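Box S2. Input/output pair 1.
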Amino acid sequence: MTQSPQHRFLIVADGDFGPLTSKTANSCIRYFPERIVAVLDRVEAGKTVQDVLGFGGTIPVVADFDQGVAKGGGATAVLIGIAPPGGRLPDEWRGWLRSAIERRLEIWSGLHTFIGDDAEFGPLAKAKGVRILDARKPPPNLPIADGRAAEVDAFVILAVGSDCNVGKMTAQLQLRDELVKRGHKTSFVATGQTGIFIEGWGTAVDAVVADFIAGAAEELVLQGAKGNDIVLVEGQGSLIHPGYSGVTLGLLHGSCPDALILCHQATRDYIGDYHGREPWVKIPSYTEMIDIYERAAHPVHPTKVIGICLNTYDMDEKAARAAVATAQKETGLPATDPVRFESGPLVDAIIKESVMAR
């Protein structure tokens, strides 16, 4: 487990704090805002997170590290809320992290570059008795998948996407909360660093050696199914993304889901920024995306898409409702934006399918 109830976080998101550029920061603000003392970003300093993101309340955005650490009664940990280009830490960030460790603040990082392995930070943290949580560091001795996830009694649902960063994790967390509220024993399985920060356990599968991605997913489903009737697996990437499709396929085959929720940002027509190149991969229609995922899963464990989850954050109310109606009409499946609107249509579909599967 990673969660520590007493921690109060200063989030470092310098230069990139925004609706689409700071996924880790944004999700932590959404799901445990009471534990965030401030966000460090010199571009948006002077604003609140509500001003920048449209949610999160009065958490301040500050330009000075020392000022940020002192906010909200004082931070007890520093959380890296964005991924700098190439995963490398800017020199100024190194100074901030050094200062944090010297103050005996924990470091929570989701970078591919492991802070604990740094020649300076590792020994310094050990000398100060400070924990560095590198959430992307995979556990040892992961297995090669052998289909055991298909044998669990729980009903397993995987979120899949038309692209990266369209709301797969958020969808599953919203659905989990509503299912639990309705009395269903439901677990959320984190497969990325942000989900691990929120939920307290999981494996960041994009940092796992390719041969063991499906095995990592399988192990997570087996753990998530213990004592639960429904397992919601966080999705990663997209089968049509030229950079991340391998991770997506590993999750799809390893988790052996009984059902899929297809996630899409309603205004996105092409795969988003691909390492700075002009987007060239056009996102297919809903029906084509559904076919792609169901066909890819079928040889290992047949499954089907049972609902559409939309991200409509950049649309006005009328356009968002129209997008939901379009998705429903084109697919014949329930659709909603579970953050902006009710999650009920998708939760109803999950309950119905789980009962039929028994």
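Box S3. Input/output pair 2.
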Amino acid sequence: MTSSIAARSAAQIQSTTSPPQPTPAAIPGARVAESIEATRQRLLEIGVLLAADSQADAVQTQLPHAQRALAKLSRRSAGVLGSDAPLVFLADTEDEWTSWKDQLDGWQRTLGGLVAQVDKTIDDVSGFEQQWAQTRLASPAGRLPPELIDGIDKTVVAIRDTSARAQGRREALLMLQGKVAESQTWIDSEISAIEAQRADRRRQLLQLQTAPLWTALAEWQGISMRAEATEAWRVSARSIVEFVRRSAFAFIFDGALWLAVVAALLRLRARVPRRSDEIRAESIHTLSRPLSAAFLISLVVIQFFAATSSIQVRRLLGLIAAFPTLRLLPGPLFGRSRILMLSLTAACVLSQIGDVTTGWSVLERLVLVGEGLLGIVVLLAIISMRRQARPAAIAAVLGVPVLLVAIGANVWGHVAMARVLTHGTIFSAYVAVIFAVVALVVDDVLTAIHRAGMVDSIRIVQTSGARVRRQLGWVMRLGLVCWWISITLDLFEVRGAVVAAIAAFLAARWDIGSVTLTAGGLLRFAATLWIAILLARLVGFIAAEEVLPRLRLRPGVSDAIAIGLRYAIIAAGLGLAVAAAGVDTGQIALLAGALSVGLGFGLQNVVNNFVSGIILLFERPVKVGDVVEIGPTIGNVRRIGIRSSTIHTSDGADVIVPNGDLISQRLVNWTYTDQRRRIDLPVHVVATADPACVTDLLVRVAGANAGVLSVPAPVALLTSFGDGGLEFSLRFWTERFEVSSRVRSEVAIAARAALRGAGLLGPTPEPAPEGEQ
């Protein structure tokens, strides 16, 4: 009630301190009748608005249930706070309170919006009342018909009645807001108590809780845990039932997803060629177990759609995931990988037993020792696996010393530290194995889709299918690794500390003259620019490989468009990166002005090449695929970059040429307008040969070659004659420049054979004596 009074007082203060509204002018007499009808219609609409509101009614109906649920949760929370429960149980209880906090915050926002809407309605009604009061004063008896005067009076009465109803609605909403605020205060106090308890437990991690294990074993008399274990399982069952109740829609969706994935995998298995050894090695293993693969995928997906789950629920889902994981692991039925997974599952079960025995230190400590020893055996086995498991071996190398420290802390008496380190390491390794199998399943499915030819209509798959598959696998693994890191930090109870440390680092500031930089701003700048570069590559790749080839553009145009898209995205990303860094544009201009002189001298060649690259992109004197000659270099243009271009020569070398040289130097483009090339072949025959017969023979020889164009037709010309013989030039054209050397050689060989057969080939000149060279 105190909160509601405070809320009403705040609203009244806000209404009294709001700026006064100007008094509306009186309605002219000619428009009174029309205005009466319009006002009545508006009052009817306001009446409907004030009559009922489904959102407020829903809050009013659900609030008593929420308060009863909060009372039950408060009793459970008091039990957890008063016992020696693990940190994970405290986190679980805090998650439940946080879930309720989010729900009540949503209610409060909804009610706040409704109060603002009613306040606007009250302001509108107050304006109507003032306007009609002014109209009544400006319309004394005799100036308007009695019917209109009576209508004005009735309108004023209706306005005042509506205003009273709006005020009552506002009071009811404010009272409801006050009740929700009381529950919010309750939740905040409970969360604060749990956070204080968790902070105290974290401080206890380095403290000695009990005597060394050998002393405790000597004094242990045994204890009956039936009642406590029953209560623990009852709490877990209640948590699971509540999760299922709140996630009913998610389970329905997940079941439909499981059926869809099973159907898709069965169809994919039917389309994959069975006789291919490569297919059998890469994808048949997963496709032969479609039920298990679909089940594992559905268990992962439900984490994103279900309600907030408790520690017990997450562990239960993890243990359930062991069944499809064991089925999908590669290797024989009783191979090493499956034995290791079974051992990890047993260690997780021991963790559950250890949580039940919390508070009875000897039994719990014995369970923790067994769990730690089993975990060490599993991790050592992972380290000794083949080289393909190198990432898992590296993680296992880090886990073994953690478990050794946990066992030592447990034996010495640091039970809290041993509990966190042991459970965190075991469950982290367990989740890592499950995620590795998920990655294997996705890789196998992508490989099978590619091999089955289901996406062959996509040009990118045709030209770069393996590359696309590798990139998709990399993105999927990156997401799984980030998720695993988040889970691991949560298991070791350090995620909050890590997030706080990262936030403190990102808030660090550096002043460089008049420019202020922050670590967060620099990180946002780098991340935004990196994403822009990746996006530019992706868009350019899709445009160049998939979209532009279908448009049948002129040669070089598609490459220019793809490069232009990449440049535009990078430029836009650079602007967004600067904005994300939070740097003032005035400071950037000042810094750029200070550095412009030095950069102008030091980077003038870079700027020249960059501008030349833009000229090459839009003017297109040189295009990708052209055969160019610049200085002694002749070859095919493979790439036009932002600073330089790559020319691939005929001997297999790649020459990197600055773009400025392609613009400023003399350049021969052999394929600027088309790919055709004219070949001049000199021919020497005997002096007694008939020129007409020779030219006819040469033309027929050239025309017989499939690589020689008929239009323009080959032609043979007599270029010189003398006692030593006749000199002819055989000129013909080829369709493509890159085959010109081969065609020239073929025509030369055929012409020599024809001239020798006709007896027209002149004698081979003898080499001159060495002294006369």
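Caption for Box S3: The chain is about 70% helix and 10% strand. The longest helix spans residues 146-204.
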